[in-house]
Amino acid sequence: MDYKEVIAFLYKQLPVFHREGKKAFKPGLGNIQQLCERLGNPQDSFKALHIAGTNGKGSSSHFMASILQEHGYRVGLYTSPHLQSFTERIKFNGQNVAEDWVVQFVEKNIQLIQDIKPSFFEWTVIMAFSYFKEQQVEWAVIETGLGGRLDSTNIILPEACLITNISWDHQDILGDSLELIAGEKAGIIKQGVPICISERQSFSEQIFQKKAQEMFAPIIFAEDKIHWDSYVNDQDFLHLRGKSSQHESFDIISPYTGEYQVKNIAGVLAWCEQIQELHIIPLQWDKILIGIEKSKINTQLRGRWEILQKNPRIVADTGHNESGITQLLTQVKQQNRGQLWIILGMVADKDIHLVLTLFPKDAKYIFCQAQNPRALSAENLQKMALEHGLEGICENNVNKAIEIAKLSSKENDFILITGSTYLVAEINVGFE
Description:
magnesium; nucleotide-binding; single chain; alpha/beta; 18% strand; EC 6.3.2.17; Folylpolyglutamate_synth; eight-stranded mixed beta sheet; ATP-binding; six-stranded mixed beta sheet; 18 helices; globular
């Protein structure tokens, strides 16, 4: 098989969450334990850092991987989902796993698929662990998929953990309250393993404190360690000035200009200080700051307030739930530009009406749908949006929608593409 045939085979043979939703989710660690045992427990060959959360865990994972790369370590990075290529999920020192390696791994271990019948996610996890072992990775940054407690990545025994923002998402799997969702994320907290919380939230603070106490795990909240004096967003970079528990004053530049990164960066910086104080990794402050500044070069994260064009300004962002969209639209309001155009697509198993209440009624909408079985049809999204006073046209293809918006807009207008990771993944403009 070639690479395309292998990926098609995996999609066909294995339950895939991003295509099928809840029915593809296999809770528990039974399958991943079997996979790891059959392949010699590759997860024991490297030291790991584990990251969970609703929003911000992808950005935080890339920041941390970049920081470790700047320190000269051999760094593995596992994240999901991918935007354009499956190989984006598994990186070594910022480079995607080679397509040929994916082919060889599947062909060599195809009997495991037949014997264990893992989910697509479980298979990608064991693939990442095996690749990291083969590459002699020293530190692996591992992002959870769904939740934490029953997530396949939770088989690892990490050296330190980070939990980012908690918000409404995947209620059908994680629970129908923010407290239940936080409890699932808290499942990554392990005996004696330090935990950092990026964002103190009233409903989750006691849950994390209680779990950490039960596990005798040192816990810190980022806002107790990192304080921002100011930040300036010049559209190309986010310039922040602050102080920390260890540093009187520092300046930092982020190549990702979404203002939600302010909390993500605070979380990562506090986590680095915790890791340093506990002598887990001998991190250097100047390399921590450089790691964040060079994170886009080092790890190639895409789709976070990504500016595809400047006039009219076109921004793509993978925000897709209440918290993510709220933060995104707050920044949009600060743009002081002309007409706002929103190209919107969503998956059907989200709380569509809750998210639609957040969008401005004075924007012009183009409703889309990703080429994904879970995508809500553009027509149904248009009907639901109309109930909230949001008016617009339908165009299934996101790239055609971008062309329509560009032709109809003026130079000072603003075009936002959001609502679904899968919609952003299909953008051709700026993703060559």
